[in-house]
Amino acid sequence: MTARHRAPAFIVGGFDAGGFEDGLPGLRLDPLRRLATVTDAASVRQALLLLLSTRPGERVNRASYGCHLFRLAFEPADDTTAGLAIHYVSRAVETWEPRVTVLDIDAGVPEDDPAVLEVRMRYRIKATQGEDEVAVAVPILDARRRPDAGGRPDAGGRPETGGRR
Question: Which of 110, 120, 119 is CA-nearest to residue 158?
Answer without folding.
Answer: 110
